Amino acid sequence: MSLNISDHTFRWLFPIPTNTYHKYCRNVYSQNGEDGIIDQLLTELNIGCSEGEGTFCEFGASDGVSSSNVLHLVKSRKFTGMLIEADEARYRKCVENYKSYSGVQVFQGFVLYDNAANNLDSWLARGNMKQDLDVLSIDIDCDDYYVWENMKNYNPKIVIFEVNSYRDPIFDELPRQPSNAYNIDLLRQQNPSRVAQGCSFISAVKLGLNKGYVPVSFTGNIIFVRRDLVENLHEFPYKLSSHPYDYITLYTHLSMWGNEWYSNNGLMVNTAIRDYYLSTNRAFIDIEWLNNRVKDIGSNRNTGS
After folding, report:
1. Which of 54, 139, 150, 187 has the maximum number of C-beta atoms within 10 A of its C-beta?
2. 156 pLDDT more than 90
3. What is the mean pLDDT of residues 209-229?
4. Per-residue pLDDT tens for 34-54?
């Protein structure tokens, strides 16, 4: 039996998950609703509530506007901090876009994990960032995992970390290191052009927990909060755990574009794989069960799961 996967995108007009911060999703400049979630977390944690107090670093900053997770903080909360972008043309646009914000430094260069002069610790020191800066946004579509793993001298309060959403959520995979943990790799077999190699959801969760961070929401980025602060969150829906698979239900088939919810068949397949693992604790997937579960997710939309 074959697996039914298509790239057809459709509006999701039904309930959204209640076990995460999705109800706060809102885009001002962010890509998938991160602006609203970050606002809510900062409010609950009482961080950066006074003008000019909040601090940030975002790298892979592009022009500093498109899909930015920090520009809203700069404009609405007067956050100060640093942006890093390697591409020269994007860097120049970023400089231009932030020229009126004296508290924001814009740097050009690569953030590397295997080069002491240009690792994240060195960049943060160059920007004179506080050891416990408030928001760190990591989005370089490549070595995000290794860069954060090798950050030793800083402990941000909130970390926004991009993962490969089209790798299914229980597949443990790192950039350029394909995993052999499965005896079947459904998405790569069925639709290889849709699944790039990269850091998978569960790999990122494991890294965050190892570094002392708890995942609280997933938008395509996992949003982590430092463990010592989580008890201050009014709406954190989980019992704290050191087991990464206890957070697997954070993964969802929903994506916010603009300020509307969407889904597609690939993300629904991933959610069904999540459900199969939760019900069986098995990585080998029953294709018939999976196809039926994808149909159920699409038809039983009142659950919002």
Report:
1. 54
2. yes
3. 96
4. 999 999 999 999 998 777 799
Residue 199: which CATH number?
A: 3.40.50.150
Q: What is the pLDDT of residue 179?
A: 63
pLDDT, residue 286, reads 79
Residues 143 and 198: their CA atoms lie apart, in Å, by: 8
Please report the DSSP string for 204-228 in residue order: HHHHHHHTTEEEEEESSEEEEEEHH
Q: Is residue 197 part of a domain?
A: yes
DSSP string, the chain: --------EEE--S---SSSSGGG---SS-SSSHHHHHHHHHHHHT-S-STT--EEEEES-TTSSTT-SSHHHHHHH--EEEEEE-SHHHHHHHHHHTTT-TTEEEEES---SS-GGGSHHHHHHHTT--TT-SEEEE--SSSHHHHHHT--S---SEEEEE--TTS-TT---BTTB-----S--HHHHH-GGG---S--HHHHHHHHHHTTEEEEEESSEEEEEEHHHHTT-SS--S---S-GGGGGGG--S-EEETTEEEEEHHHHHHHHHHHHHHHH--SS--HHHHHHHHHHHHH-GGG--
Lowest-confidence pick of 1-15, 109-123, 169-183, 283-297: 169-183
The predicted pLDDT at position 183 comes to: 47
pLDDT in tens, 87-107: 999 999 999 999 999 999 999
**Domain contains 187:** yes
Domain range spanning residue 177?
Answer: 18-243
Number of domains in the chain: 1
